[in-house]
Amino acid sequence: MMLFPFPCAMFQNIEGNAPKTGDSPMKHIQVLPIEDGGNPRTQDDIVETAGSFLIRPFSEDGDANYKFRFDVELISSSNEPVPVDFTIEWADAEYAKFRRYMLLSRNDSWQRIPAEISGTTAHAVVQAPPGRSQLGMHPPFNYTRLQTLVQELDLAVFTSRSIGRSLQGREIYAVEAGLPGKRPLVITARVHPYESIGSFMTLGMIEWLGGRSAEAAGIMQNHRIVILPMPNPDGVAAGFCKRTIGGLDINNAATSAEPEGIALAAFFRAMKPMASFDIHGFMHNSDGFGTNDIRRGQAIANHLLTRPDLFNKKLGVHESQDTEGGLSNLGCMAQHEFGSVRFGGSWSWYDRDSAHLRAMGVEILKAYTGQFS
Protein backbone atom coordinates (compact mmCIF):
# COMPACT_ATOMS: atom_id res chain seq x y z
CA MET A 1 0.00 0.00 0.00
CA MET A 2 1.34 3.42 -0.94
CA LEU A 3 0.80 6.34 1.40
CA PHE A 4 0.97 9.76 -0.15
CA PRO A 5 3.25 12.44 1.29
CA PHE A 6 1.44 14.26 4.05
CA PRO A 7 3.92 16.67 5.67
CA CYS A 8 2.87 18.42 8.85
CA ALA A 9 4.09 21.69 7.36
CA MET A 10 1.05 21.62 5.07
CA PHE A 11 -1.26 22.23 8.00
CA GLN A 12 -2.21 25.51 9.59
CA ASN A 13 -1.14 25.72 13.24
CA ILE A 14 -3.88 26.33 15.78
CA GLU A 15 -2.42 28.21 18.78
CA GLY A 16 0.88 26.36 18.29
CA ASN A 17 1.20 24.65 21.67
CA ALA A 18 3.75 21.92 22.29
CA PRO A 19 2.67 19.12 24.63
CA LYS A 20 4.23 19.47 28.08
CA THR A 21 5.64 16.61 30.10
CA GLY A 22 2.73 14.85 31.79
CA ASP A 23 0.24 16.80 29.68
CA SER A 24 -2.54 14.75 28.08
CA PRO A 25 -2.15 15.02 24.29
CA MET A 26 -5.93 14.78 23.93
CA LYS A 27 -6.40 18.26 25.38
CA HIS A 28 -5.06 19.57 22.08
CA ILE A 29 -7.57 17.63 19.95
CA GLN A 30 -11.07 18.52 18.76
CA VAL A 31 -13.24 16.41 16.47
CA LEU A 32 -16.18 18.33 15.03
CA PRO A 33 -19.04 17.84 12.58
CA ILE A 34 -18.70 19.57 9.19
CA GLU A 35 -21.51 21.79 7.96
CA ASP A 36 -20.99 21.27 4.20
CA GLY A 37 -20.76 17.55 3.57
CA GLY A 38 -20.19 16.19 7.05
CA ASN A 39 -21.36 12.83 8.38
CA PRO A 40 -22.43 12.51 11.19
CA ARG A 41 -24.27 15.81 11.40
CA THR A 42 -24.23 16.47 15.15
CA GLN A 43 -21.70 16.44 17.97
CA ASP A 44 -23.85 13.85 19.76
CA ASP A 45 -22.55 11.22 17.32
CA ILE A 46 -18.91 12.16 17.93
CA VAL A 47 -18.21 10.89 21.43
CA GLU A 48 -14.95 11.32 23.35
CA THR A 49 -14.43 8.61 25.95
CA ALA A 50 -11.28 7.75 27.90
CA GLY A 51 -8.91 9.45 25.50
CA SER A 52 -10.47 8.12 22.30
CA PHE A 53 -13.24 9.10 19.90
CA LEU A 54 -16.26 7.06 18.88
CA ILE A 55 -17.93 8.20 15.64
CA ARG A 56 -21.36 6.99 14.55
CA PRO A 57 -21.98 7.66 10.83
CA PHE A 58 -25.48 7.50 9.40
CA SER A 59 -27.02 6.21 6.19
CA GLU A 60 -30.05 8.22 5.16
CA ASP A 61 -32.03 5.19 3.98
CA GLY A 62 -30.44 2.42 6.03
CA ASP A 63 -28.90 0.77 2.95
CA ALA A 64 -25.63 -0.65 4.27
CA ASN A 65 -24.47 -1.35 0.70
CA TYR A 66 -23.97 2.42 0.34
CA LYS A 67 -22.96 3.17 3.93
CA PHE A 68 -19.38 4.15 3.18
CA ARG A 69 -19.27 7.74 4.33
CA PHE A 70 -18.08 9.61 7.35
CA ASP A 71 -16.47 13.06 7.30
CA VAL A 72 -15.38 14.96 10.41
CA GLU A 73 -13.03 17.85 11.07
CA LEU A 74 -9.92 17.09 13.11
CA ILE A 75 -8.27 20.08 14.84
CA SER A 76 -4.99 19.89 16.73
CA SER A 77 -3.51 22.84 18.64
CA SER A 78 -0.23 20.97 19.14
CA ASN A 79 2.93 21.74 17.17
CA GLU A 80 3.59 18.02 16.91
CA PRO A 81 1.61 15.06 15.57
CA VAL A 82 -0.70 13.62 18.21
CA PRO A 83 -1.80 9.95 18.12
CA VAL A 84 -5.59 9.81 18.35
CA ASP A 85 -7.59 6.62 18.81
CA PHE A 86 -10.70 6.42 16.59
CA THR A 87 -13.47 3.84 16.52
CA ILE A 88 -16.13 4.06 13.81
CA GLU A 89 -19.39 2.33 14.71
CA TRP A 90 -20.92 1.38 11.36
CA ALA A 91 -23.78 -0.70 12.84
CA ASP A 92 -23.32 -3.16 9.98
CA ALA A 93 -21.07 -6.20 9.67
CA GLU A 94 -22.05 -7.39 6.17
CA TYR A 95 -19.90 -4.84 4.31
CA ALA A 96 -17.22 -4.49 6.98
CA LYS A 97 -14.45 -5.70 4.66
CA PHE A 98 -14.88 -2.54 2.57
CA ARG A 99 -14.35 -0.30 5.61
CA ARG A 100 -10.82 -1.40 6.52
CA TYR A 101 -9.32 2.07 6.39
CA MET A 102 -9.72 5.73 7.26
CA LEU A 103 -8.61 8.69 5.19
CA LEU A 104 -6.73 11.66 6.62
CA SER A 105 -6.84 14.62 4.25
CA ARG A 106 -6.13 18.28 3.81
CA ASN A 107 -7.14 20.00 0.57
CA ASP A 108 -5.98 17.66 -2.20
CA SER A 109 -3.50 15.61 -0.17
CA TRP A 110 -4.62 12.48 1.61
CA GLN A 111 -3.30 9.42 3.37
CA ARG A 112 -5.05 6.08 3.73
CA ILE A 113 -4.71 4.56 7.20
CA PRO A 114 -5.44 0.84 7.72
CA ALA A 115 -8.21 0.09 10.21
CA GLU A 116 -8.87 -3.05 12.22
CA ILE A 117 -12.36 -4.48 11.86
CA SER A 118 -14.13 -6.00 14.85
CA GLY A 119 -17.77 -6.86 14.34
CA THR A 120 -19.47 -3.66 13.22
CA THR A 121 -16.61 -1.30 14.13
CA ALA A 122 -13.42 -0.08 12.48
CA HIS A 123 -10.54 1.04 14.69
CA ALA A 124 -7.35 2.97 13.90
CA VAL A 125 -4.83 5.22 15.57
CA VAL A 126 -4.45 8.40 13.53
CA GLN A 127 -1.47 10.73 13.83
CA ALA A 128 -3.32 14.05 13.96
CA PRO A 129 -1.12 16.70 12.32
CA PRO A 130 -0.96 20.28 13.61
CA GLY A 131 -3.85 22.46 12.46
CA ARG A 132 -7.00 21.48 10.64
CA SER A 133 -7.49 18.28 8.70
CA GLN A 134 -10.37 16.03 7.77
CA LEU A 135 -10.97 12.38 8.61
CA GLY A 136 -13.28 10.27 6.51
CA MET A 137 -13.43 7.51 3.91
CA HIS A 138 -13.12 9.45 0.65
CA PRO A 139 -11.24 12.50 -0.61
CA PRO A 140 -13.41 15.50 0.32
CA PHE A 141 -14.97 17.60 -2.44
CA ASN A 142 -18.01 19.58 -1.32
CA TYR A 143 -20.66 21.72 -2.98
CA THR A 144 -18.94 24.96 -2.00
CA ARG A 145 -15.85 23.87 -3.91
CA LEU A 146 -17.98 23.13 -6.98
CA GLN A 147 -19.52 26.60 -6.79
CA THR A 148 -16.04 28.14 -6.73
CA LEU A 149 -15.00 26.03 -9.71
CA VAL A 150 -18.01 27.18 -11.73
CA GLN A 151 -17.45 30.83 -10.80
CA GLU A 152 -13.82 30.66 -11.92
CA LEU A 153 -14.39 29.02 -15.32
CA ASP A 154 -12.65 30.56 -18.31
CA LEU A 155 -15.59 32.02 -20.22
CA ALA A 156 -13.55 31.96 -23.42
CA VAL A 157 -13.70 28.16 -23.24
CA PHE A 158 -16.76 27.25 -21.17
CA THR A 159 -20.35 28.17 -20.66
CA SER A 160 -22.14 27.17 -17.47
CA ARG A 161 -25.74 27.25 -16.42
CA SER A 162 -28.10 25.84 -13.88
CA ILE A 163 -30.41 23.20 -15.31
CA GLY A 164 -32.63 23.45 -12.24
CA ARG A 165 -32.60 23.56 -8.47
CA SER A 166 -32.54 20.81 -5.91
CA LEU A 167 -35.24 20.36 -3.28
CA GLN A 168 -33.28 22.64 -0.94
CA GLY A 169 -32.67 25.23 -3.65
CA ARG A 170 -29.10 24.45 -4.70
CA GLU A 171 -28.16 24.91 -8.34
CA ILE A 172 -27.60 21.82 -10.49
CA TYR A 173 -24.79 22.97 -12.76
CA ALA A 174 -23.96 22.02 -16.34
CA VAL A 175 -20.54 22.99 -17.71
CA GLU A 176 -20.23 23.03 -21.50
CA ALA A 177 -17.37 23.31 -23.98
CA GLY A 178 -16.99 22.77 -27.71
CA LEU A 179 -19.34 23.10 -30.66
CA PRO A 180 -22.72 24.68 -29.79
CA GLY A 181 -25.70 23.05 -31.43
CA LYS A 182 -24.09 19.66 -31.99
CA ARG A 183 -25.55 16.60 -30.26
CA PRO A 184 -23.54 16.55 -27.06
CA LEU A 185 -21.47 13.96 -25.30
CA VAL A 186 -22.72 14.14 -21.71
CA ILE A 187 -20.68 13.25 -18.63
CA THR A 188 -22.26 12.85 -15.19
CA ALA A 189 -20.52 12.33 -11.86
CA ARG A 190 -21.31 12.32 -8.14
CA VAL A 191 -24.79 10.87 -8.61
CA HIS A 192 -24.21 9.12 -5.28
CA PRO A 193 -22.88 11.63 -2.77
CA TYR A 194 -20.04 9.61 -1.26
CA GLU A 195 -18.46 8.86 -4.66
CA SER A 196 -16.16 11.88 -4.69
CA ILE A 197 -13.77 10.32 -7.20
CA GLY A 198 -16.10 11.63 -9.91
CA SER A 199 -15.56 15.19 -8.71
CA PHE A 200 -11.80 14.87 -9.11
CA MET A 201 -12.12 13.23 -12.53
CA THR A 202 -14.43 15.92 -13.88
CA LEU A 203 -12.20 18.59 -12.32
CA GLY A 204 -9.34 17.12 -14.35
CA MET A 205 -11.42 17.23 -17.53
CA ILE A 206 -12.35 20.87 -16.98
CA GLU A 207 -8.79 21.90 -16.13
CA TRP A 208 -7.43 20.15 -19.20
CA LEU A 209 -9.98 21.62 -21.60
CA GLY A 210 -9.36 25.04 -20.05
CA GLY A 211 -5.63 24.65 -20.64
CA ARG A 212 -6.27 25.04 -24.39
CA SER A 213 -3.63 22.60 -25.55
CA ALA A 214 -3.68 21.70 -29.24
CA GLU A 215 -5.19 18.31 -28.38
CA ALA A 216 -7.89 19.85 -26.20
CA ALA A 217 -8.67 22.45 -28.88
CA GLY A 218 -9.00 19.68 -31.46
CA ILE A 219 -11.54 17.85 -29.32
CA MET A 220 -13.55 21.03 -28.74
CA GLN A 221 -13.52 21.83 -32.47
CA ASN A 222 -15.21 18.53 -33.20
CA HIS A 223 -17.42 17.82 -30.19
CA ARG A 224 -19.86 19.38 -27.80
CA ILE A 225 -19.05 18.27 -24.27
CA VAL A 226 -21.50 18.81 -21.41
CA ILE A 227 -20.47 17.90 -17.87
CA LEU A 228 -22.89 17.56 -14.95
CA PRO A 229 -20.36 17.47 -12.09
CA MET A 230 -22.80 17.18 -9.17
CA PRO A 231 -26.44 16.34 -9.99
CA ASN A 232 -27.18 15.66 -6.30
CA PRO A 233 -25.94 18.78 -4.49
CA ASP A 234 -28.26 18.38 -1.49
CA GLY A 235 -27.07 14.83 -0.88
CA VAL A 236 -23.44 15.93 -1.03
CA ALA A 237 -24.03 18.86 1.33
CA ALA A 238 -26.05 16.75 3.79
CA GLY A 239 -23.42 14.03 4.09
CA PHE A 240 -25.68 11.45 2.46
CA CYS A 241 -24.45 8.19 0.96
CA LYS A 242 -26.88 7.42 -1.87
CA ARG A 243 -29.98 9.59 -2.17
CA THR A 244 -31.28 13.13 -2.47
CA ILE A 245 -32.98 14.94 0.40
CA GLY A 246 -36.31 13.84 -1.08
CA GLY A 247 -35.25 10.18 -1.18
CA LEU A 248 -34.41 9.84 -4.89
CA ASP A 249 -31.60 7.61 -6.13
CA ILE A 250 -30.55 9.65 -9.17
CA ASN A 251 -29.76 6.39 -10.96
CA ASN A 252 -33.56 6.37 -11.36
CA ALA A 253 -34.11 10.06 -12.06
CA ALA A 254 -35.83 9.78 -15.45
CA THR A 255 -39.28 8.99 -14.04
CA SER A 256 -39.04 10.84 -10.73
CA ALA A 257 -41.30 13.64 -9.54
CA GLU A 258 -38.50 15.03 -7.33
CA PRO A 259 -37.08 18.38 -8.53
CA GLU A 260 -33.68 16.87 -9.30
CA GLY A 261 -35.27 14.11 -11.38
CA ILE A 262 -37.52 16.54 -13.25
CA ALA A 263 -34.56 18.82 -14.04
CA LEU A 264 -32.29 16.00 -15.18
CA ALA A 265 -34.91 14.27 -17.33
CA ALA A 266 -35.80 17.59 -18.99
CA PHE A 267 -32.12 18.30 -19.57
CA PHE A 268 -31.50 14.92 -21.22
CA ARG A 269 -34.57 15.27 -23.41
CA ALA A 270 -33.54 18.77 -24.47
CA MET A 271 -29.94 17.73 -25.18
CA LYS A 272 -30.74 14.41 -26.94
CA PRO A 273 -27.17 13.34 -26.22
CA MET A 274 -25.20 11.27 -28.67
CA ALA A 275 -23.83 9.44 -25.65
CA SER A 276 -23.65 9.65 -21.87
CA PHE A 277 -20.85 8.58 -19.55
CA ASP A 278 -21.75 8.17 -15.87
CA ILE A 279 -18.80 8.13 -13.42
CA HIS A 280 -19.15 6.30 -10.11
CA GLY A 281 -16.83 5.09 -7.38
CA PHE A 282 -17.10 2.02 -5.20
CA MET A 283 -15.30 0.33 -2.33
CA HIS A 284 -13.07 -1.91 -4.38
CA ASN A 285 -9.57 -1.94 -5.83
CA SER A 286 -10.39 -2.25 -9.53
CA ASP A 287 -11.96 -0.23 -12.34
CA GLY A 288 -14.73 -1.15 -14.75
CA PHE A 289 -17.68 0.06 -16.79
CA GLY A 290 -20.60 -1.23 -18.82
CA THR A 291 -22.10 -0.09 -22.10
CA ASN A 292 -24.78 -0.98 -24.62
CA ASP A 293 -22.12 -0.60 -27.36
CA ILE A 294 -19.42 -3.12 -26.52
CA ARG A 295 -17.34 -2.26 -29.60
CA ARG A 296 -16.95 1.34 -28.50
CA GLY A 297 -16.59 0.26 -24.90
CA GLN A 298 -13.71 -2.07 -25.72
CA ALA A 299 -12.07 0.66 -27.78
CA ILE A 300 -12.29 3.02 -24.80
CA ALA A 301 -10.78 0.36 -22.53
CA ASN A 302 -7.98 -0.27 -25.03
CA HIS A 303 -7.17 3.44 -25.08
CA LEU A 304 -7.08 3.64 -21.30
CA LEU A 305 -4.78 0.63 -21.08
CA THR A 306 -2.18 2.49 -23.14
CA ARG A 307 -1.67 4.48 -19.92
CA PRO A 308 -0.70 1.78 -17.39
CA ASP A 309 0.81 4.52 -15.24
CA LEU A 310 -2.75 5.77 -14.66
CA PHE A 311 -4.97 2.72 -15.17
CA ASN A 312 -2.78 0.48 -13.05
CA LYS A 313 -5.53 -1.76 -11.67
CA LYS A 314 -7.70 -4.45 -13.19
CA LEU A 315 -9.93 -2.79 -15.81
CA GLY A 316 -13.06 -4.54 -17.01
CA VAL A 317 -15.68 -3.65 -19.62
CA HIS A 318 -18.94 -5.52 -20.12
CA GLU A 319 -22.02 -5.29 -22.30
CA SER A 320 -25.10 -3.95 -20.52
CA GLN A 321 -28.25 -3.53 -22.56
CA ASP A 322 -30.34 -2.40 -19.62
CA THR A 323 -30.01 -1.56 -15.94
CA GLU A 324 -31.93 -2.58 -12.86
CA GLY A 325 -33.74 0.74 -13.02
CA GLY A 326 -34.79 0.17 -16.63
CA LEU A 327 -36.17 3.25 -18.33
CA SER A 328 -36.06 5.18 -15.06
CA ASN A 329 -32.30 5.38 -15.64
CA LEU A 330 -31.29 8.52 -17.56
CA GLY A 331 -28.83 6.71 -19.80
CA CYS A 332 -31.35 3.99 -20.63
CA MET A 333 -34.02 6.60 -21.31
CA ALA A 334 -31.71 8.40 -23.74
CA GLN A 335 -30.75 5.09 -25.35
CA HIS A 336 -34.39 4.16 -26.00
CA GLU A 337 -35.68 7.62 -26.94
CA PHE A 338 -32.77 9.02 -28.95
CA GLY A 339 -30.52 6.08 -29.78
CA SER A 340 -27.86 7.33 -27.39
CA VAL A 341 -24.88 5.21 -26.42
CA ARG A 342 -24.64 4.62 -22.70
CA PHE A 343 -21.53 4.12 -20.58
CA GLY A 344 -21.47 3.79 -16.81
CA GLY A 345 -19.01 2.39 -14.36
CA SER A 346 -17.05 2.58 -11.15
CA TRP A 347 -13.46 3.62 -10.53
CA SER A 348 -11.15 3.17 -7.57
CA TRP A 349 -9.26 5.97 -5.85
CA TYR A 350 -7.20 3.57 -3.69
CA ASP A 351 -3.50 4.50 -3.78
CA ARG A 352 -4.18 7.29 -6.27
CA ASP A 353 -3.67 10.94 -5.45
CA SER A 354 -5.54 13.99 -6.72
CA ALA A 355 -3.26 14.53 -9.72
CA HIS A 356 -3.66 10.85 -10.66
CA LEU A 357 -7.47 11.00 -10.52
CA ARG A 358 -7.58 14.21 -12.54
CA ALA A 359 -5.29 12.67 -15.17
CA MET A 360 -7.55 9.61 -15.31
CA GLY A 361 -10.47 11.92 -16.03
CA VAL A 362 -8.55 13.48 -18.92
CA GLU A 363 -7.80 10.08 -20.48
CA ILE A 364 -11.42 8.98 -20.09
CA LEU A 365 -12.49 12.19 -21.85
CA LYS A 366 -10.03 11.58 -24.70
CA ALA A 367 -11.09 7.95 -25.09
CA TYR A 368 -14.79 8.81 -24.89
CA THR A 369 -14.74 11.64 -27.41
CA GLY A 370 -12.51 9.59 -29.70
CA GLN A 371 -15.36 7.15 -30.32
CA PHE A 372 -17.66 9.77 -31.84
CA SER A 373 -17.13 12.00 -34.86
Q: Which short descriptors sum up this protein?
A:
373 residues, alpha/beta, Immunoglobulin-like, Aminopeptidase, eight-stranded mixed beta sheet, 8 helices, globular, disordered N terminus
Set out the fold topology.
Elements: E1 29-33, E2 46-49, E3 52-55, E4 71-76, E5 82-89, E6 101-106, E7 109-114, E8 116-118, E9 121-128, E10 131-136, H1 143-151, E11 158-165, E12 171-178, E13 185-189, H2 197-210, H3 214-222, E14 224-228, H4 233-237, H5 259-271, E15 275-281, E16 287-291, H6 294-304, E17 315-319, H7 330-338, E18 341-347, H8 354-369
Parallel strand pairs: 3-5, 13-14, 13-15, 15-18, 16-17
Antiparallel strand pairs: 1-4, 2-3, 4-10, 5-9, 6-7, 6-10, 8-9, 11-12, 12-14, 16-18
Helix pairs in contact: 2-8, 6-8
State the gist of this model.
The protein is α/β, with parallel strands linked by helices.
Could you explain how this protein is built, in words?
The protein is of the alpha/beta class. It folds into 2 domains: 8-136, Immunoglobulin-like (Sandwich); 143-369, Zn peptidases (Aminopeptidase, 3-Layer(aba) Sandwich), CATH 3.40.630. It is 23% helix and 28% strand. The protein is built from 8 helices and 18 strands. It has an 8-stranded mixed beta sheet. Strands 1-4-10-6-7 form a 5-stranded antiparallel beta sheet, with no helix packed on it. It is globular and about 65 Å long.
